[in-house]
Amino acid sequence: MSSSRLPIQRLGHTDMEITRIGFGSWAVSGSGWRFGWGATDDAESIAAIRHALARGVNWIDTAAVYGLGHGEEVVGKAIADLPDADRPYIFTKAGLVWNPDDPQAAPRRIMKPASVRREVEDSLRRLGVDHIDLYQVHYPDTGESLEYAGGGFGAVSPNATPLEEYWQVMAGLKAEGKVRAIGLSNHSPEELTAAERIAHVDVIQPPFSAINRSAAAEIGWARAHDTGVIVYSPLQSGLLTGAFSAQRVAGLPADDWRTAHHDFTTGLPANLRLADELRPIAERYDVSVAEVAIAWVLAWPGITGAIVGARRPDQVDGWIGAASVELTRADLDEITGAITRSGAGTGPARP
Fold first, then answer.
1. pLDDT tens digits for 156-210?
2. Is the pLDDT of residue 152 over 80?
3. Whole-angstrom Cα distance, residue 315 to residue 37?
4. CA 84 to CA 127: how far, in whole Å?
5. What is the predicted pLDDT for the residue at 260?
6. Cα separation of 186 and 154, whole Å?
7. Cβ atoms 235, 293 nearer than 8 A
8. What are phi and psi of 22, to 5 degrees?
């Protein structure tokens, strides 16, 4: 499928042409788990997804771990009664396994073959589809817990599954037709190279924003290997929407994972300064600060699309125009200066 309403681009070497912005379902996955965003309303979440599709978005990114399965269920309900011609591409992820008896525990990074095969069947059932368009490994297997809110990613257990083993399983799922394409999220260039020796890495999914620019090397690797790139958190979990303030952060509910993350604590002043410096550019183009921030991400060579979340339909309207914003060299120079002055984040400050 393709959309005539938004700019589209081929996803790596696959046969999928995707809009340059996709809908991310992490924030609509509900509360009651370690990395939730606070309470959500499923009816409103479904309305947000359907509004994004009505505005031309043609893909949804989700993951089994979001809401401990609930995120995929919400996506499944949102697309359940859509005609085939209007159905978006569905991208999901495996490899973060939770303990149903302790939903507040950090999920573990597990990619054992039997676990992956169980996960894909569970995802197919929750989503209500007969195949997954893009199936991704959420993180490298360490066998240990994911401690995202604390800023670390855990140690590596001696029982961790080698990349070569779990990537072969992913390639097998593609050969069987359960998934159309396979990808790696949060993997280093060295890990991507090791995987490429076994089977082509169709897509990578790193975090990337004007604040978090640390995945530039992975994006360069993908560009050199005809691999698609869909980046997550281009708005840095809302900080680059222009709608945040120290007061709003202080008012976040206790069960919102952002309250414990360094971007919203020690890093907050610099991040808010950067968002504020994007306002003059947004005003010149008569767009939102969020649309400028996303347009900056999409200006990077090699990036196919960006994943953006929304919990309400009106939030979609705040970023949907980003793919049509064409930043000039002068704009990019101005943003580079803003990044440098603010001291926000790490990584190269210009595409």
1. 577 899 999 999 999 999 999 999 999 999 999 999 999 999 999 999 999 999 9
2. no
3. 15
4. 15
5. 84
6. 14
7. yes
8. -120, 160
- Structure tokens of 326? 């064409």
Single pTM value for the model? 0.93
Give the separation between CA 290 and CA 280, rounded to whole angstroms: 12
Are 137 and 184 within 8 A, CB to CB? yes
Structure-token pair, residue 249: 């952060």
**Catalytic residue positions, numbered:** 66
Q: Are 74 and 45 in contact (CB under 8 A)?
A: yes
Would strands 305-309 and 8-10 be described as parallel, antiparallel, or unpaired?
A: unpaired
| Structure token pair of residue 158 | 């001696």
Find all residues with CB under 8 Å of 203, minimum gap 6, and list them: 11, 12, 14, 134, 136, 181, 182, 183, 184, 227, 228, 229, 230, 304
134, amino acid identity: L
